[in-house]
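fyi for ur records
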Amino acid sequence: MKSKTTAGIFALVFGGLGVHRFYLGQKGLGILYLLFVWTFIPTIIAMIDGIVFLTQDEDKFNRKYNTEYWAMQHAQQQQQQYHHHHHYQSSPPQPPPRTAYAEEPRREKKDPFQVSADRKYADYDFEGAIQDYRRSLNVDPRQADVHFKMACLYSIHEDTDTALYHLSQALEHGYYDFDEIEKHDHLAFLRSTPDYQAFKSNGYRIPATSPAEPAAANPVPPDTLELSDDLITRIERLAKLKEDGILSEDAFRREKAKILRS
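which gave:
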């Protein structure tokens, strides 16, 4: 557990040496402070850091620097609210009536590795979940939801490159819930990094200069790299048509490429 008060004091007293960044586990920033300590610029930045830490909301600080602890507390609160709601619920919700003409969609069975990984993820066994999700991807590497969960787990571990790789794979294989990407609690660290901002500005693709993945064979022109809300909506509609079986995988890819080039 990192203390925002301790971080603030370190920043105000030893800020020029980057002690507060080392304390928060941000070794790269700490080394950067040390390299430029002679310029007194790190000292000035550290004073601002110290004031921010001391005045920052406790929950916001924990969300960024005590991610696992914050996620556990958040999950417990949701679980308590769930049990409280269902305790006073007079009757269980009824499923919608089935129509005679509607065919019940087929549900694909998850492989046992994914089932095990989901259970470990829910129990906060993040390392075990990563191992089982890897085995699941060995069975089928095109599982967009598994890649998304891997991105969340590596974001929790503050492994930016691996998290971005799995997030890009999730999008490549049909995960287009951009609202979830921008709001999911476990992606909070990843979204705070400059690499993610470059990834987002590049049309939710890893830039060519990133070591995590080589550039795409047909990159989008620079003037169209930023995805507008309209483009995102059109891509989401295409994904829905593919899920409903109206578009084939090849047709989906062709239409998506046309939208990105338009």
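The mean pLDDT is 78. thats all i got for now
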